[in-house]
UniProtKB/TrEMBL annotation:
Biological classification of the source: Bacteria, Pseudomonadati, Pseudomonadota, Gammaproteobacteria, Moraxellales
GO biological process per UniProt: peptidoglycan biosynthetic process
Signal peptide feature range: 1-21
GO CC, one annotated term: periplasmic side of cell outer membrane
GO molecular-function term, one example from the UniProt record: enzyme regulator activity
Name recorded for this polypeptide: Penicillin-binding protein activator LpoB
Source organism per UniProt: Acinetobacter kookii
Protein keywords: Signal
Keyword field contains Signal: yes
Cross-referenced Gene3D superfamilies: ABC-type transport auxiliary lipoprotein component (3.40.50.10610)
């Protein structure tokens, strides 16, 4: 009985103290520099996207290529060769958004290809869609170029200090010829020092 009373008292105290704790939540500037840890973060993503898009749009071959038309491309996956769990799709989404908003390129979204195929099949085969309004298959535009790349890192730890070097490489490849028309890379180095407790 005494054990049950002690357990009940402990649970009640935990609930009361937990209810008294407060979380102070505030909004911050999404573009501000994030330096909580040396791990890959939002600032790194923004720096990579800005560098890649600026390099691509000012490269003479790309300037000529986009002078009178908007080439169609798709984004292949970015291979994460680091030891961290990094959402590389978020990096390519940001790069794709910037390129589309530049007005220089058009994109086909290969991540939605299966969903589009299912929708086309539904419209054609379900018997539920008025065929006068159904979308006809075979109208998709083929991509002329593919964007793909790698994110790699080298991590060193010694004497309470830690250093991480990231390298992001991106290339634009002609789908028909296989020729790499453009490539660029962005390097990032971040260091941290373990603080001594009480200092």
């Amino acid at each position: 009985m005494k054990l049950k009373l002690t357990l009940a008292t402990t649970v009640l105290a935990t609930l009361v103290l937990g209810g008294c704790a407060s979380n102070n939540v505030s909004y911050g500037d999404a573009q501000s520099v994030e330096t909580l840890t040396k791990d890959f973060g939002s600032t790194d993503l923004q720096m990579i996207a800005d560098k890649m898009v600026d390099d691509m749009l000012t490269f003479p071959v790309i300037v000529q290529l986009t002078q009178n038309r908007r080439p169609v491309m798709f984004v292949d996956r970015i291979r994460n060769k680091t030891q961290e769990h990094i959402d590389t799709e978020s990096i390519t989404d940001t790069i794709q958004n910037k390129l589309i908003n530049s007005g220089k390129f058009r994109f086909v979204d290969m991540t939605s290809a299966n969903a589009l195929a299912q929708q086309l099949a539904y419209q054609k085969q379900s018997g539920l869609v008025n065929q006068a309004t159904s979308v006809k298959a075979g109208g998709h535009i083929g991509a002329e170029y593919m964007l793909n790349g790698n994110l790699s890192s080298i991590v060193k730890n010694a004497g309470g200090k830690s250093d991480v070097y990231y390298k992001f490489t991106l290339k634009l490849q002609n789908v028909q010829t296989g020729i790499v028309e453009w490539t660029s890379e962005k390097e990032i180095r971040k260091s941290s020092k373990r603080s001594t407790f009480g200092l």
